[in-house]
Write a structure and sequence with these properties.
Elements lengths: L2 E3 L2 H14 L7 H13 L4 E3 L10 E9 L7 H8 L12 H13 L5 E4 L8 H10 L2 E6 L12 H4 L7 E5 L4 E4 L5 H14 L3 E10 H7 L1 E2 L1 H17 L4 H9 L2 E16 L2 E10 L7 E7 L1 E7 L2 E5 L3 E5 L17 E7 L8 H8 L13 H4 L8
Parallel strand pairs: 3-4, 4-5
Antiparallel strand pairs: 1-2, 3-8, 5-9, 6-7, 6-8, 10-11, 10-16, 11-12, 12-13, 13-14, 15-16
Helix pairs in contact: 1-2, 1-9, 2-5, 9-10
């Protein structure tokens, strides 16, 4: 193993790092921590390997949970009754493991390594634990360098790699193999509708690639990065220092804004949590305001009503006292936040990627993408 999670403290550090990189999405941190600690209690070895240590001919698959991060509504229980589903009758086996097995069976070839689709407090621990339960490897890296809502924000899309065929399994045991899709947009739509049909989410195993091709599109080192971010926050708190600044030193990022959440509006739309946050500035930012639009994750911001930092660059709202990121599911009016920013992947900054999947125009906004380092130069005291 390149690196292992050997204790609950390690798992907590990992979750904090995943939240920091999660840009408001990536799943429930309580679920992610429970998945990790349960695996430790079961005696599993949780860790990851450097991509270069995976033999080139090993078959790999991308794994993730797909679905909205919106809170459940009052109609959830009623819908379960209409579909004759027992709330306590969900399958016990890990759905990611089931999806990997189904895809492997369909391909007639053993999958020897999995890759996390993104960085998030549930959607990264899930693949780590699934690999341990399956007895296969997971690489130190992912296919997005952050949390993302769709197939089109991942590196396979940017490199023109098809993610079909794929297997999807939900918590009720419903299992689907999709052998071919017209294009990545349809793949995303089909997988999303499977999650909607399940009334929650679905686990997906997709993008079967030999390791030689996986290495070409992987964002390397990101699992170790998450662990390092969390450890830096913890050590800063123990030393009485600023955990946000400690984390920003690890990622070479910016502290963009400080404030209090003044308003939050959202809808659960088409399997996504879409919404807007308004943050009123405090301290050096008093008298200024920041708006952030999210589709599960934050993608477009406005400073004093002027377009500001946008995807594919990262924007995360964190607790200034702990460095722990907020998910858009739970952040609430009155929460004090530090707004942090990080550079996005260069491959996602290319004109075709910006237009077709990663930039503000793709998300429906007449807003030009300007790299974060041009908007917030180092000379402004951003660190």
């Amino acid at each position: 193993m390149h690196r292992r999670l050997e204790s609950v403290a390690d798992c907590e550090d990992f979750i904090v790092g995943c939240l920091f990189m999660g840009t408001g999405g990536g799943g429930d941190p309580a679920n992610g921590l429970e998945v990790l600690t349960a695996a430790l209690r079961d005696g599993l070895e949780l860790g990851w390997r450097d991509a270069e240590s995976i033999a080139d001919d090993v078959l790999t698959a991308m794994v993730y949970e797909i679905g909205s991060i919106a809170p459940r509504t009052d109609g959830h229980a009623e819908l379960l009754r209409e579909l004759h589903l027992d709330p306590d009758g969900a399958v016990q086996d890990d759905t990611i493991c089931l999806a990997v097995r189904e895809l492997s069976q369909h391909l007639g070839q053993e999958i020897g390594c999995v890759v996390a689709a993104e960085l998030g407090a549930s959607n990264t621990p899930g693949p780590v634990v699934a690999a341990a339960r399956l007895g296969i490897s997971i690489v130190d890296g992912d296919y997005a360098g952050r949390a993302v809502p769709e197939e089109m924000q991942g590196t396979p899309f940017a490199y023109g790699i098809s993610s079909d065929p794929f297997a999807a399994v939900d918590c009720w045991g419903n299992t689907v193999i999709v052998t071919k899709t017209a294009n990545p947009y349809m793949l995303e739509r089909i997988a999303r509708h499977l999650a909607i049909a399940s009334i929650d989410s679905a686990a997906v195993a997709s993008t079967p690639l030999p390791a030689r091709d996986m290495k070409r599109v992987l964002v390397p080192g990101t699992l170790c990065l998450c662990l390092e971010i969390g450890g830096a926050c913890r050590r800063a708190i123990e030393a009485g220092n600023d955990p946000v600044q400690a984390a920003l030193r690890v990622v070479d990022g910016w502290r963009l804004f400080d404030g209090v959440v003044a308003d939050k509006s959202w809808i659960d739309s088409g399997g996504f949590m879409d919404g807007t946050l308004k943050i009123e500035g405090t301290g050096a930012w008093e008298g200024h305001s920041l708006r952030a639009w999210f589709k599960n994750e934050i993608h477009v911001t406005w400073l004093d009503d002027q377009p500001w930092v946008c995807s594919p660059d990262l924007v995360t709202l964190v607790d200034p006292s702990s460095g722990r990121g907020f998910t858009n599911t739970v952040i609430a009016v009155g929460d004090e936040v530090a707004v942090v920013g990080m550079r996005g992947l260069e491959v996602m900054r290319q004109p075709a990627a910006l237009l077709n999947g990663s930039g503000p125009v793709y998300f429906g906004f007449d807003v030009p993408y300007v790299p974060i380092e041009q908007l917030v130069p180092r000379a402004s005291g951003a660190h």
